[in-house]
Each structure stands twice: as structure tokens, then as C-alpha cells.
């Protein structure tokens, strides 16, 4: 079988006992299955929830906290316990683990995003098992990944994984929540995730999970657009992950193989970067950059909004004010005010630089007309 790079996401619902606390037996079963996957030569990255579940009892709560501060404090206790349990389990299989705790802020700046990717690449090269979770204890509300489903999709893109396996307590995506509607039918295969499916899918989840099936479907849409093939479902026993990879999993498979992957620089622009201003362009420029793969030149620019420096990211809008994409600019907003609408030769005289008067190079551009991310 072809060796793959696989991200496995394990949700709280697959790691906890009936009281919502961490269930070591379940964790050990996942450990065995992950070890078998690695033993077959696949490169594996684990995105694991469970920090809040593992920590809330020692914090003094009788049930999983609902307040942000309660969850953050529980995760501060539980993350260490979770990693300790994983390390002990993987040690039995001769596997060394590494921990990465990420926040959204860690990926906003391009160099930090690239560093996270480089660290993961080095760990995989040396056959280490990276275990990733959101850094819940210091995450800021409104600037979180939302849930580990989306985090696992973003990690899949970052490492250019061929497959994302989302393990949960239900065997796939159903037409309705099967816990409340016994007539709901399972989708065995979906070639794509239309927006309508996301809208229709419930965010009702288990008592310990975040986001229910809705967040998994949303994550699957993102992962698919980044070129990853997805499985959402459940399984049991040490061979469950191998069965899933071989196409015999109990759940929903999403996307055909093989997928075209999206370059990391484009992923960063589309999913992580912060826009510092806006550039309005005329019809010709809008067409050139969004449909014809050209770079943006000063001549097509009609207006500049906001203040930004060279290298920062801006949104580009068409004459109707519709955002058509975003890119990293080679000039500051002040410089662009001077050269907007000018041909490159005239712009060069004003900026007094010998460099090519490209405002956004096509390699630093992400078009909304392209993939649905
Ligand atoms: N359309 C649906 N198909 C399948 N499960 C659904 C659907 N809508 C809601 N759910 C619920 O989503 C739950 C899984 O989500 P969640 O508890 O967040 O899991 P996890 O902890 O693994 O992230 C299931 O137990 C199920 O009750
Ligand atoms: N980061 C949190 C879990 C967040 C989350 O998305 O949970 P889940 O929906 O169970 O995957 C934790 O470790 O408890």
C-alpha cells in the first residue's frame, strides 16, 4: 500500500468516560491503532482533544466547566496529564511523542506559520509522533480555532497531508442528528461538501464535544479545498485506523483521491493572514488577477483604503466593492497613493526604485475565485 501522510483527530467524545473524565482504556486503544498505522510506514500526526476532560476533576469541578476561565484552567491541568498518558502508551510501542500547542495567533504571522510547518516536518522526518492541541489555557476568545476539527483541517493543509481521519463517537455524517432522528440516513461517501450541507448539519454534540457534526463538516470542507481526503467516523480495535486507510472504515469518506494540494504560501494568505487595508482595482485588473493569473500593476489601481506597509496583506476589491482576493503588497499605502493608475514606467520615476513595479506578485496572491477556502 502507498505510504501516506495522515492526520488523525481524536475528539473528546472518543476519549472520555460517562462522567466526562479522561478514559485511559480508550486512549490506549487509540494508541495501539496509531502505532499500527505508523508501523505500516505511514507518517502520522495526532490532533487530540481531551485536555479539559482530563483536568476538570482535579480543578474541583464535578462536571465539565462551561465558563471560559473554567475550561482554560481545566486544560492547564489536563493537557499535562493527557500528554503523560499518551507518552506512556506510545513508549510501549517504541514511539517517541512531541507536543505542539497552537493558538490562532501563532499562525497569523507568515514566519510563525512557516516555523510551525518546519517543526512538524523535522519531527516527521525523525519518525516522531507530533501530538497537537489548541493551547486552550492562553487562547483568547474570538481568536481561537473554534474547535479541534478546524485545527486538524488546518494542520492537514500545513503538512500537505493526503488524508485526515476525524474519529468521533458516531459512525459518520447523517442527514440529521441520528440521536434525535432515528430515520436519519448516513452518507457513505461525499465527493464534496456543499455550503448547504454545513447549514443543515446540527452543532449539537455529545456532552463533552465542541461543535457537534457541524464543525466536522466545516472542517472537512476546508481540508478538501486544501487537497486532503477525509474520513469522519468511528471504529474499534487496534486495526481500526488501518481499516479506515484501506477504505473499510465505519463512517463517511469525503473527496476523491488524489487531490491537488494548495501551496503553503497560498494557504497562509487564505486562512491565516490579517488584512491591513484595501486596494480597489478597475475591471481590467480584476479580470487579470482573478481569472488570468497575472500580477497586479499600479495602472489597474483606482483607490487605496487604510494604512499599510510594504509586505503586509491587503484585500483587493473590484469596482463594485466585492472582495476578489487578498495578497502581500510590495509598496506601502503612501507609495501606492502616489503611483495608483500610472503605467509602470511612470511609477518607476516616482518611486525612484529600479525594481519592477508589481504591486502584488501572482505568487503572493490568493484569489477568491479559485478554491472554496
Ligand atoms: N447530522 C449528524 N450526523 C452525525 N452526528 C451528528 C449530526 N448532527 C449532530 N450530530 C452529533 O455530533 C456528535 C459528535 O460531535 P462531538 O460531540 O462534538 O464530537 P467530538 O468530541 O468527537 O468532536 C454525535 O455524537 C452526534 O450526536
Ligand atoms: N482543546 C479542547 C477540545 C476542543 C474540541 O474541539 O473538542 P472536540 O470537539 O471534542 O474535538 C480540549 O483539549 O479539551
Automatic annotation (TrEMBL):
Taken from the UniProt entry, a GO cellular component term is: cytosol
Location of the PUA domain: 277-360
Ligase as UniProt keyword: no
Any GO molecular function: ATP binding
Q: What is its EC number?
A: 2.7.2.11
Role noted for this protein: Catalyzes the transfer of a phosphate group to glutamate to form L-glutamate 5-phosphate.
Protein name (Swiss-Prot/TrEMBL): Glutamate 5-kinase
**Originating species:** Planococcus koreensis
The gene from which this protein is expressed is proB
Amino acid at each position: 500500500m502507498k505510504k501516506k501522510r495522515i492526520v488523525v483527530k481524536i475528539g473528546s467524545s472518543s476519549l472520555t468516560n460517562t462522567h466526562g473524565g479522561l478514559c485511559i482504556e480508550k486512549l490506549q486503544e487509540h494508541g495501539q491503532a496509531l502505532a499500527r498505522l505508523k508501523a505500516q510506514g505511514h507518517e502520522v500526526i495526532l490532533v487530540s482533544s481531551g485536555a479539559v476532560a482530563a483536568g476538570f476533576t482535579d480543578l474541583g469541578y464535578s462536571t465539565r466547566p462551561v465558563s471560559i476561565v473554567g475550561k482554560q484552567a481545566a486544560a492547564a491541568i489536563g493537557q499535562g496529564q493527557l500528554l503523560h498518558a499518551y507518552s506512556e502508551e506510545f513508549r510501549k510501542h517504541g514511539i517517541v511523542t512531541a507536543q505542539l500547542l497552537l493558538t490562532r495567533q501563532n499562525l497569523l504571522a507568515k514566519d510563525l506559520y512557516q516555523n510551525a510547518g518546519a517543526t512538524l516536518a523535522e519531527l516527521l522526518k525523525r519518525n516522531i509522533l507530533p501530538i497537537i492541541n489548541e493551547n486552550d489555557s492562553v487562547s483568547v476568545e474570538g481568536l481561537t480555532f473554534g474547535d479541534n476539527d478546524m485545527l486538524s483541517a488546518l494542520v492537514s493543509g500545513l503538512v500537505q497531508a493526503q488524508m485526515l481521519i476525524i474519529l468521533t463517537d458516531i459512525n459518520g455524517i447523517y442527514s440529521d442528528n441520528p440521536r434525535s432522528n432515528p430515520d436519519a440516513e448516513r452518507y457513505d461517501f461525499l465527493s464534496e461538501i456543499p455550503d448547504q450541507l454545513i447549514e443543515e448539519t446540527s452543532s449539537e454534540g455529545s456532552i463533552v464535544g465542541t461543535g457537534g457534526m457541524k464543525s466536522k463538516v466545516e472542517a472537512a470542507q476546508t481540508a478538501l479545498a486544501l487537497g486532503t481526503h477525509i474520513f469522519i467516523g468511528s471504529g474499534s480495535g487496534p486495526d481500526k485506523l488501518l481499516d479506515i486507510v484501506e477504505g473499510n472504515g465505519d463512517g463517511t469518506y469525503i473527496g476523491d483521491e488524489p487531490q491537488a494540494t494548495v501551496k503553503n504560501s497560498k494557504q497562509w494568505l487564505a486562512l491565516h493572514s490579517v488584512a491591513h487595508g484595501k486596494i480597489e482595482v478597475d475591471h481590467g485588473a480584476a479580470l487579470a488577477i482573478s481569472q488570468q493569473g497575472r500580477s497586479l500593476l499600479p495602472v489597474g489601481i483606482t483607490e487605496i483604503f487604510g494604512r499599510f506597509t510594504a509586505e503586509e496583506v491587503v484585500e483587493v476589491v473590484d469596482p463594485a466593492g466585492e472582495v476578489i482576493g487578498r495578497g502581500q503588497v510590495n509598496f506601502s499605502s503612501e507609495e501606492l497613493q502616489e503611483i495608483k493608475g500610472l503605467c509602470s514606467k511612470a511609477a518607476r520615476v516616482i518611486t525612484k526604485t529600479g525594481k519592477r513595479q508589481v504591486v502584488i506578485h501572482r505568487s503572493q496572491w490568493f484569489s477568491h475565485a479559485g478554491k472554496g477556502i
